[in-house]
Amino acid sequence: MAPSPREEPTLSPPVPPESDDACVLWHRRNLRLTDDRAVEYATANYDTVCPLFIFDPRFYGADGLACDARLRFLHECLADLEDQYTKEGTTLVYAHGSPVDVLDSFLDAGWDAVVNREATGRYGKERDDALAARDGVRFVADDGIRYGQSDREGWAEHAESYFESDPNRPHESGFGRHDLPSTVDIDAIEGEYDVSPSKTDVPTGGRTAALARLDRFLDVVHEYQANVSSPLGAATRASRLSAHLRFGALSVREVYQALDDAIDSNGKEAFVSRLFWNRHYTQKLADWSGWMDTAVNPVLEGIYADNGDEELIRAWKRGRTGFPMVDASMRCLRETGWLNFRMRAMCASVFSFVLKQPWQVGADYMYYHLIDADPAINYTQWQSQSGLKGIGAIRVYNPRKQVRDNDPEGDFVKRWVPELDPVPAKYLDRPERMPLSLQDELGVDVGEDYPYPVVDYDRERRAALDTFAGLRAESEAAMREPDVFRRASLSPKSRNIVEQATTRSDGAGTQSAESAGSDSESANEQAGLDQF
Ligand SMILES: Cc1cc2nc3c(=O)[nH]c(=O)nc-3n(C[C@H](O)[C@H](O)[C@H](O)COP(=O)(O)OP(=O)(O)OC[C@H]3O[C@@H](n4cnc5c(N)ncnc54)[C@H](O)[C@@H]3O)c2cc1C
């Protein structure tokens, strides 16, 4: 076993390579050898390829925004990657420390570095910009994302050709041999950071588990569309591949191409659209790293920022808002690290519009607990569900309607909010409406055993719509600013909305913002809904 990171200097200077033609292959999000551009490039261009993973302290510990279950999932992916390399006759090397420092030490010793480009937030962008300036570092990409492009023209065609083209493969010359030791191992890292997951029902990480999951899903993909909205239906009939895709145990292209074997159905079609959404949101973060902390529309930066109410935030986090579907969802998230799309959207919408709390607090909390936490999807979705583009229709999810539509028997609510177990299904959307005599009979005292709604939903919804309507003209004008327009990285439909607003402001158009059509980036289109 390697020494603990505390006992050993984080960076022991790497041994110089024996050949001039040697590189380290730095794995970050792609924890696989198949369909990985960096693997293909490194094996095709270097005699000796030393695979490397760096444990970055920034993602561990109290400020790390990653729950222990996600760290464990990552470690399982790494253990699987170790096996994949063993089969190739080489070893995965581990280091611990700032990636820039670690890679500098390799560069100083005479190694090149090969790495996949990735969409990242500000920290990752600064890190990658610093590395890109070093001699000997090669960034490569083949992931359906266009880097450094200033507009979205031709994006759909680019994504489509990515999905349809042949996956990357390690070059037949292989990885060569290296003698570099690891300076740390997974056990030492888990000990150092006291990784002890408390969540249940978390999938196992790694390519082996991911391929098995994909295999099972292909048998039921035709049932996808009919089940994806319900939190219990989606738990068994959605793919549940998100965490595997997040850590790159599989590529989205591999999943797309595996669907060739499934018979055509509306479920398959709907699922394919989700894979495009995955690339679409990833493109957004590649276009602007600010999505994680700054409202995309500057007019809405700071909206509700001064409202921070610890009690409301705690009620939302703990699943004690008095809205059963929100409470069940938030408890499910904390316990399992997963929720289906619609429940994530509802929880975000209620946090931002109904409780009127600063969106970043909710987004960070969800990100912390999700096993599939992906900065490109989580934060862009939060901004979308919080109306922060300031264009198109504002949609406020109704948590009571979600019970009626997606959990009519109350199975999901009762599973996660057991204090409501005796309550008849017809009251589960609004338990506070149960007659007192019935509460007595059932032994459920609303206000005592389960809270009254922490706010008046109808009043807060109207207030939010009024606030956003009042900011509409200013928001649309801001979105027409070239810099903002570019960073918003809008889909064609959203661009149409801005263009229609421009026509109106020129006096030529008559359509109101509310009737300008749906924003294709909204939950509405993704979930195929017409009401919330
Ligand atoms: C507020 C909010 C936060 C979210 N945060 C994340 C996140 O951090 N990581 C994440 O992977 N997904 C996120 N999603 C999107 C979606 O909820 C999850 O991808 C999905 O629930 C994961 O389950 P699954 O793998 O069974 O998905 P499936 O429904 O089987 O979809 C297959 C894959 O398509 C992609 N996908 C599905 N829906 C979307 C979407 N709306 N946008 C982009 N890609 C999508 C994912 O990679 C997913 O694994 C978020 C959605 C919302 C509303």
Automatic annotation (TrEMBL):
The keyword Signal does not apply. Residues 21-147 form the Photolyase/cryptochrome alpha/beta domain. Its cofactor is FAD. Residues 482-532 are annotated as: Disordered. Residues 491-511 have a biased composition (Polar residues). The keyword Flavoprotein applies. Keywords: Chromophore, FAD, Flavoprotein. Residues 512-525 have a biased composition (Low complexity). This is DNA photolyase family protein.
